[in-house]
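Lab channel / #folding
Pinned by the channel admin:
"Please post every new chain as: sequence first, then the structure tokens as a reply. Keep commentary short and put observations after the output so the thread stays searchable."

First post following the new format, from NK:
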Amino acid sequence: MENKINKVSTMRNNKLIGKTIIIIFLILFTMQAAYAVPVISVEPSCPDVMENNRFIVNIDIDPDSTQILGVEYTLSFNNNLLKVLNQDKGQFLSQDGVDTLDILNIFDNDNGVIKYGEIRTGVDYGVDIAGTLATIEFEVISNSGLCELRIEKTIISNTSAQEIQDIIINNGRIGIDQPLTSFFIDGYVFYEDGSDCNNPVVIITNLDLEREWTAVINDNSNYYQLMLNSSVDILAGETLQFNAIGPNAGQSTVVEYTVSQAQIDDGGFELNINFGSDWRDEWMGKNSEEGSAVTTSELQDAIHHWLDDEPVRGYVLLTSDLQEVITVWMT
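Reply from TO:
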């Protein structure tokens, strides 16, 4: 009898240890997910120019509270449309008076490539306030066209001189003698039952250009709108991603939409957004494996979705959502 009790006790302890290990891993992953994500952006001073014009493009860095010690990038451009005249150091890495070293400053008009690198010297701490890393002066050498200014490669280093893996890149585009035609996007956001979802957040991203905008929401309504430029912000064949988030936790959906030439000609389109079912139904709904209870396989599936930011019924799990799943699994 005593052996059976000890065996049961050991099994319970092993189960508890197993769950504890999983929770410890989740805490570690949570700490990793909480890290800030720096942003490097190509910011043209003028999105539409004419032949023989000269204009400035800034390469801006937003550290998002991350201490940055050095940055390197490679930017490509169409050398049939633009020519680089100069590339100059900005104030981003030296904004607090610390000396910096240019490790790379090259522009190759024959191949349409620009390279730049800079590090802070004499200190073991970085900067965490947004600023301009470098400025590039271009001259327009064509009478018409669209030129992508694309960051092909970038290395942003932390205070340990290690590359920061997760960064956001916002590329740029220059229109040469292009008509500045307005492109208007609007629509309504609804819950699954068809009722109005008032005061949502709608983030629209051009996946080809890797630029995002937040739509304007009329006060206390489910109507959203966004004004873009059809020659600079969006072209026919490019894909827009709509990420709609409701005012209540657990309400979110992602929709991808490819813009047609007819819509470019029409100056925009309307897209209504409907939320799917609640994400909880995936693992805690009546049609899940064990109804309101969460099985170990369901927990593993939830962890997978959380780690990879993989949407569940159109919703991307937050850390608090995963904690909710864990709580139900443990009960």
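NK: Residues 27-34 have pLDDT under 50 and may be disordered.
TO: also worth noting, The longest helix spans residues 2-33.
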